[in-house]
Design goal:
The structure is a single chain. The chain is α+β, with helices and mostly antiparallel strands. It has helices at 2-6, 41-48, 79-88; strands spanning 9-11, 17-19, 24-25, 28-32, 38-40, 57-61, 74-78. The protein has a single domain, classed as Homing Intron 3 (I-Ppo) Encoded Endonuclease, Chain A (Alpha-Beta Complex). A 3-stranded antiparallel sheet has the order 3-4-5. The two termini are 23 Å apart.
């Protein structure tokens, strides 16, 4: 799964790794696992990088680009912190 997943990103000069897959749900890129489960791309990128996401936590894009799958741009945080980060930093570009 990892090799296929990473082959679906394009590394940009700004450091973002943009997801090239076509599936989108509620404005967020998703992919389908070999077992048929739909997963948000940014969450899978964190897991494939060897980190975990506790049950009550979310993944925040530091770069503010929802299609970015670069694990270095993704921060696992609790829901309150994630909400605070979104209020503090308005999205730069939600699609790319």
């Amino acid at each position: 799964m990892g090799h296929w997943f990473w082959s679906q990103v394009e590394k940009k000069e700004d450091g973002c790794w943009l997801w090239l897959g076509k599936e989108v749900m509620k404005g967020r890129p998703i992919c389908t696992t070999p077992k048929g489960k739909k997963v948000q791309v940014h969450r899978l990128a964190v897991l494939l990088s060897g980190r975990t996401i506790p049950y009550d936590h979310e993944v925040h894009h530091q770069c503010r680009k929802t299609f970015c799958a670069n694990p270095d741009h993704l921060v696992v945080c609790d829901k309150g912190t994630h909400r605070w980060l979104h209020q503090k930093m308005q999205p730069k570009n939600l699609t790319i």
